[in-house]
Design goal:
The chain has 449 residues and is mainly α. The protein contains 19 helices and 9 strands.
Length: 449
């Protein structure tokens, strides 16, 4: 296996050469020697002997070919020491091998080295000051740019108006979600098997990894490169632990939907709520609402019916099938697929991106808006392919000839947070949005701090 066709990374213009001539006919021992000598050449004193000795035959083969790829494509200024560390970690955890179809091995190895991330980021132009100023009022609606700095434009919080508006809207939202799953008299709710979700998860992970452009795979620390398997991290929403943290978390999340939502009268606006200034007041109000009679049980039931994720990579899917009066079977399958993509993307978002939620007034743009915007992009692409290929419909939906998903599922959700993410991406471009979300290159998202 000598020279091969170049591997291209989407529409980015990045094309890297593939030449395995230096390692084409090496034995296991020779492969190990090649890796050790290449590492020492790139980083004098970098001894990887001990870690290489723990790899099996496939691991040795994987590392030798990965180092050949990296050495022949590295660019000036590359952090070779960090690239070697990333590749050693990937080499131990990956199952990819030279010769995998669709140049999957090459894509993984070059991404795991950090080279693709570097090239993607270097290919993006910085934002103009004008664009950054325009973004400020989207990220923090309570602020305006003056050219000489940022000034607060909101008067003091009207706590009574905020309480009344949020309590009324959240009660309506919670009751509506429970009613959606309420069976008719004498009707017993059915449940999907978690085995089905696990099967679906395997296909979703593979699709996001290789069919959604270079950005998801380009983070060397991503679960896509470090052995994370979505199918083994799934559990039922009905198994969620109903503690105070999760119950409050649900209300705080939905308070953003209600507070900014036109359907609920925009209580944040009417109460002069400032997301940076009034975070503690909002937290206290949600604790007060949770203590109201019956609300704790209602919120707990909503949690048991809502897809979610945890920082340890656990993703929960709702197995309960709503009554046919609420949603058709095909639409349910589309909805489950979209939810799984959304929750999986939470796991793939970069920590540096996630941390920005605490620095802006409308934090849900980061917490949910960008997640659902990218979900919608991937879902539209996948839905289009499923519509053309019956075998994909069977694989992703267990339906041979599904109707198209509803228009609602094809657009960004999460109310004003989703609209904010759409507006921001419209100003900065999808590549910059993806670089910030997947790679942590938040300088391209236009934050003031």
């Amino acid at each position: 296996m000598g020279p091969q066709p170049n591997v291209s990374f989407g529409q980015t213009g990045i094309s890297l050469k593939v030449d395995f001539t230096p390692v084409a006919s090496l034995s296991k021992e020779q492969s190990s020697t090649y890796v050790k000598e290449t590492c020492l050449k790139l980083v004098p004193g970098k001894d990887v002997s001990r870690r290489l000795s723990t790899l099996d035959d496939e691991g040795q083969l994987r590392m030798a070919h990965a180092m050949a790829l990296y050495e022949s494509n590295r660019v000036p200024g590359s952090d070779d020491a960090q690239a070697i560390e990333w590749l050693l970690k990937w080499g131990r955890l990956s199952k990819a091998l030279p010769g995998d179809s669709g140049q999957r091995f090459e894509r993984e190895a070059l991404s795991a080295s950090g080279l693709v991330k570097r090239l993607l980021i270097n290919g993006l132009a910085p934002l103009t000051d004008k664009t950054v100023a325009e973004l400020e009022s989207i990220y923090s609606p309570a602020y305006v740019s003056t050219g000489t700095g940022t000034v607060r434009k909101t008067p003091p919080l009207k706590i009574g108006l905020l309480r009344n508006g949020l309590f009324r809207g959240l009660t309506q939202l919670v009751d509506g979600q429970i009613a959606y799953f309420e069976p008719g008299k004498g009707v017993k709710l059915q449940r999907d098997s978690m085995d089905w979700f696990k099967e679906q998860a395997t296909h979703v992970q593979d699709y996001v990894k290789f069919e959604c452009g270079p950005y998801p795979l380009a983070n060397p620390d991503s679960g896509l490169l470090t052995g994370y398997e979505l199918s083994t991290h799934l559990e039922s929403t009905e198994a969620v632990q109903l503690n105070d943290r999760r119950l409050l978390g649900y209300l705080l999340n939905r308070a953003q939907v209600v507070g900014y939502g036109s359907a609920y009268g925009k209580p944040f606006a009417t109460a002069d709520f400032d997301g940076l200034r009034d975070e503690d007041a909002l937290y206290d109000l949600m604790g007060e609402l949770l203590r109201k009679p019956g609300m704790r049980d209602k919120v707990g039931r909503c949690l048991q019916l809502t897809g979610s994720h945890s920082s340890d990579g656990t993703i929960r899917m709702n197995p309960v099938i709503p009554p046919e009066t609420s949603i058709g079977r095909t639409e349910l399958r589309w909805n489950q697929l979209r939810t799984l993509i959304h929750e999986f993307l939470h796991h793939l978002s970069h920590p540096d991106f996630n941390d920005k939620a605490d620095t802006i007034g409308h934090g849900q743009i980061i917490d949910e808006g960008f997640v659902d915007m990218i979900t919608a992009i991937i879902f539209r692409q996948l839905a289009d392919e499923i519509g053309k290929k019956p075998e994909m419909a069977e694989r992703f939906l267990r339906i041979k000839e599904p109707a198209k998903p509803s228009a609602r599922q094809l657009t960004t959700g999460y109310a004003e947070a989703g609209k904010g993410a759409d507006q921001i991406t419209g100003k900065i471009g999808q590549d910059r949005a993806y670089a910030g979300f997947f790679l942590g290159a938040t300088k391209f998202l236009g934050f003031k701090k």
